[in-house]
Each structure stands twice: as C-alpha cells, then as structure tokens.
Amino acid sequence: MGDVKGAVDREKVKGFAERVISDVGASMHGALSYLGDRLGIFKAMAGAGPMTARELAEKTKLSERYLLEWLNAMVAARYVDYQRDGAKYHLPPEHAAVLANEESPAFMGGFLQVTVPVVSMAPRIGEAFRDAKGVSYADYNPEMAEVFERISAPQFKHKLVPHWIPAMPHVYEKLQAGGRVLDVGCGSGVAALTLARAFPKSQVAGIDYHQGSIDRANANAKAEGLSDRVTFSVENGTGLPADSFDLITSFAVVHDSVDPLGLMTAARKALSPTGSYLLVEDNVSSHVEENINPLGRAVYSLSTLYCITVSMAYGGAALGGAMGEGKTRELAEKAGFGSCQRLVVDDPFVALFELRR
Hints:
Elements: H1 10-38, H2 41-45, H3 53-60, H4 64-76, E1 81-83, E2 88-90, H5 93-99, H6 109-119, H7 122-131, H8 144-164, H9 169-177, E3 180-184, H10 190-198, E4 203-208, H11 211-223, E5 230-234, E6 245-251, H12 260-270, E7 271-282, H13 294-312, H14 324-334, E8 339-342, E9 350-356
Helix pairs in contact: 1-6, 3-4, 6-8, 8-10
C-alpha cells in the first residue's frame, strides 16, 4: 500500500525510530556485557575505585584498546561512571552487586551470559519458523548448563530456604524431621543441593533429561560431600514412583517441557498423600496486554529463542515462558490436583504455586 498523505504521525515515527535505535544498541550492548562477565572485567573493576583503561588493562591482562572502547560503551549505557579528569572509569558498588558479586542476591551474571548463546542460534530458529520444527537443547552451546546454574543460583541461595519453603509451614516441618524431596528438571543440581544442606535429615533426588547437566550435578554433589544424601539421574519426569515424595519441585521447567500435563500428572501421583508440589514459573501474565513491560519483553524474547523451540524439537506443547497463572491453574486441574494455591511471596520475577493432591 502506498503512503496516505497525513495518515502518518511524524512525531510518532521519530519516537519509534529512537526506540529501535535504543533496542539495537541494547542488543549489541548485551554482547559487550557478556564479554564483561566472561572475561572478568566487571569483577576486576568491582571495589577497585576509579581507574584508567590502561590500569584496567594491566590488571586484567587484556588489550587496552579493546577495553577503552568497551568502557566507553559501558559509560554510554550507564553501567560505568566516567570521570573526565584523569579519564577514569568506575563501577559503582550498587552496579557491582548486580554485575560482579556472585554471592549477591541481586547478581545477574547468568542473564548476561545467556545473551550470546541464545542470540547466536537465531539463524537456526529462523529455519524453525519456516518448518515449524524446533532446535534441541543439545544443539545449543554446552555453556548453557552453566548459564542456567548461574541464573538460578542467587534465588536458590537467598530465597529458596529463607522464604519459599517457609511459605509452606507443613513442608518446612517435614523436611526438618526428614522427608523425601524430588527436583524435576534439576539442571546442575543447585536447588537440590541447597535443600540438602539446609535439611540434613532429608533425602533429595534430582532428575533431568540432559546427560551433561546430570554429570555436572553429580560432580557438584561430590564436591560438596553430599553424594550420600543427594542423587541425580537422567529421566524425563513422566515415570515417577507413586506416593513417594513429601516435596516435588520444578523451577521454570513446566513451560518448556515436552509434555507439561504428563509431567504434572506424574508429579501428583508421585506425591505422598500429604505432600506438596512447588511449581515456580516466571511472574508474568497469561495475557500479552498485561506483559507490556521490561520483564515481558525479556520473557517473550528468551521464550522464542529457547523455551518453545526446545519443546517443539520433540513435538512438545511449547507453552512458552509466559504461561502465567491462568495456564498453571488450568494444567493443575487437568492433572487432577485438588488444590492450587499461589504462595504469598514478594518477588518481582517469579510466581510460586503449591499444588496438593
């Protein structure tokens, strides 16, 4: 169609063009943030005070010229402060808590790391757009196992035991006394190991369909001296033993599983009569008009580049990251759960549901 005179608001065109430039810059900045994380630049700047590009190069043993350009990009993005006198760069402590300190509850290094592995799959995803098939997890960069470990670690370290488990008092008491726990889609085992450390009388198991993640989980358990109480195995989560667990957990697993209803049905059957299934998903709505915000943009983008395609690779349901509370309750009912309660937990990023038989 040709342009209709007077139909286009030029100010809106200008405003939208500026937004596109901002998004293009953000996408390339994501790659630079990946480098800052992977090369240890953020960590080198944390707590070091103002420093020149040369001083940073000496500290990191990296190229001064590349660092100078990288630093200027970080200043433009307001990640790093700049002092014109002396041409010095400074990573504020508040930013370091997010970018450099892996023990901080606000650490987001895993999200910085995920950008390049998933964006690099765009050509493969483009093929999937055409053939309506998918890209399997095995086709992604092997560092994805570490990516998910680092994304989830701050939540598991700082929220799982202090806040999430106590939101279910009967579960907390059972685990203290000695219960049986299963983490479905355990990845490298961070959640399972966290629970094992916090509840030494309990037995904990983790399952995942990806052999590389299970190998990493078993290595982590051995390194922490927990192999006697924590076991990890390769399974898809649909053939679980009946009436066996006091607590079953899944953390951002259901939405990209091949058979989410089958998984949840198996979880219900595997619970003990008084057991609970803790289902954690992204804190977004099932309705797109309610997700027009930064979190919604991030969830839909990652879902397109990863979540739905790893499900479609095996002919799966491809629910996507924004399954939301509505779909969660729908699946809980279809799976035969007697109750589905959203837990009262103050968290902007995740929603927690307790499902019981």
